[in-house]
Amino acid sequence: MKLRDDKKAGQIFRSVLTLVKEKGLAGITMGEIAKEAGMATGTLYIYFKNKEELINNLFFECRKEALENYFVNYDESLPFKKGFSIVWHNILQFRIENFEEVVLMDQCYHSPFVNDCTVKLTKEMKKPLYKLIERGKKENFFKDVDDMTLLTFMIGSIHEGVKNAHYNRKPLNKAAIDAMFKMCWDGMKR
């Protein structure tokens, strides 16, 4: 029996990200993934028993990496707006720098490939984001509306800004980023 090589698993993940960006999640096969990764299809099955297992593993890893990056340099002792700004900018930066992962995660939310267990784990990982939103409401910075609505507004505005910049091949400059943050803050604040 062959032993698993973490470098090959990373190679497989990168291949999936490339293919998903080009063809979409539903449009790729295990054979295409193996070819893109430069390995035999049988080798791919040593690492993942099927496409669903592969996609669930990759989705989980992408969500984990994203959420870990969102709170870099965040400290709850900072004034709320400063802390919120750090998280907001981290989310924006992660999505700019990891666009292929963002495409995959977005498609996974709308696909049958991601199982209930993975969905449950990723919801658990989002707790710090909800805690941030709750803090904003508790400290009377944010509107008194459902947490999910506020989080959707925050992430949605970042997501669309990054997506439009990427597809229009027009990188976001400091003025655009500052304007996006101000509009998000103004849209969420009381």
Structure in words:
- Pfam families: TetR_HI_0893_C, TetR_N.
- InterPro entries: Homeodomain-like_sf, HTH-type_Tx_Regulator, HTH_TetR, Tet_transcr_reg_TetR-rel_C_sf, TetR-like_HI_0893_C.
- It comes from Sediminibacterium roseum.
- Residues 29-48 bind DNA.
- The protein is mainly α and 190 residues long.
- It has helices at 6-23, 30-37, 41-47, 51-70, 80-97, 99-109, 116-125, 127-138, 147-167, 174-188.
- The termini are far apart.
What descriptive keywords fit this protein?
190 residues; mainly alpha; elongated
Level of helix content?
over 70%
Structural class based on helices, strands and sheet pairing:
mainly alpha
Low-confidence stretches are: none
Question: Beta fraction of the residues?
Answer: under 5%
Number of strands: 0
Shape: elongated
User: Tell me about the biggest sheet?
Assistant: none
**Residue-averaged pLDDT:** 93
Alpha-carbon distance between the two ends: 61 Å
> H/E series, N to C?
HHHHHHHHHH
Instruction: Supply the number of helical segments.
Output: 10
- Radius of gyration over C-alpha positions, nearest whole angstrom: 19 Å
Topology:
Elements: H1 6-23, H2 30-37, H3 41-47, H4 51-70, H5 80-97, H6 99-109, H7 116-125, H8 127-138, H9 147-167, H10 174-188
Helix pairs in contact: 1-2, 1-6, 2-3, 4-5, 4-6, 4-7, 5-9, 8-9, 9-10
Concise account of the structure shown:
By secondary structure, this protein is mainly α. The protein has helices at residues 6-23, 30-37, 41-47, 51-70, 80-97, 99-109, 116-125, 127-138, 147-167, 174-188.
